[in-house]
Amino acid sequence: MIDTHCHLDASRFDPDRDSVVTRAWAAGLHGILIPAVGPETWEPLLTLPRRDARIQVGLGIHPQFLPDLPAEDDGMHLEQLDALLSKGGAVAVGECGLDGPSLPGAPLERQLAVLRGHMALARKHGLPVLMHCHRLHPALMEFLKAEPWPEAGILMHSYSGGAELARFYIQKGCHFSFAGPVTWAEARKPLDALRVIPADRLVAETDSPDQAPTPFRGQRSEPGYLPHILAGMAQVLGEPVEVLAQRTTENARRLFREAFPSPSR
């Protein structure tokens, strides 16, 4: 099992980060992908895969953090990101994307410009994009209709849209990841979407420390909860959880170009 989206560097893990990682391996995980949220985290994150190849990282600027960054520095930050990606060590570009609630502090034009920069870097460095989209799917769809596609692909992180939206992203070639909400009692749209996604484009995540699955909802999530999310996904798909766990692991390894070591290594 590979957790394809876990903010293990978040401050909520400061008290017990090592124990969280130990519990993840004990739960059967073989890999954790940590997506950066802002420039100050890029270089510290790059040190993690050097210590343990089971932990890999993506580098990008989360749209929710754009209001905290001066707009005049966007170009400089993208140049810095380019330089770091050139050195290797990252397996993805992101987390990046569009965020509706952040519009008052980061207008759509700015969010699109920064996302366009991330996409260009993904194409240049041959890396997949970890895509965030919250309450701006129409804008993202229009963007993707016009934007050149990164050969390594796009992963729709913690997908929460319905089946009709999913069909657009499927047609474009996206991969999809699901988090804790697939286990929540009131979940509807993500379950409908899950049923239409091609088997070879499906992976799983915890989005820790947020979106904890049942029975931990309302608490801090952690990567060791991934088996609960996979169990929820398997129930929706009507297949054995072991089969789904193996397939999503293989899909993640392929998407991230075998960066994660296999259990036998």
TrEMBL record:
A divalent metal cation 1 binds at H5, H7, E95, D207. GO terms for cellular component: cytosol. Keywords: Hydrolase, Metal-binding. The keyword Metal-binding applies. Pfam families: TatD_DNase. GO terms for molecular function: hydrolase activity, acting on ester bonds; metal ion binding. InterPro entries: DNase_TatD-rel_CS, Metal_Hydrolase, TatD-like. A divalent metal cation 2 binds at H132, H157. The keyword Protein transport does not apply. Gene3D superfamilies: Metal-dependent hydrolases. It comes from the Bacteria. PANTHER family: D-AMINOACYL-TRNA DEACYLASE, HYDROLASE. Belongs to the metallo-dependent hydrolases superfamily. TatD-type hydrolase family. This is TatD family deoxyribonuclease. It comes from Corallococcus carmarthensis. The lineage of its organism: Bacteria, Pseudomonadati, Myxococcota, Myxococcia, Myxococcales.
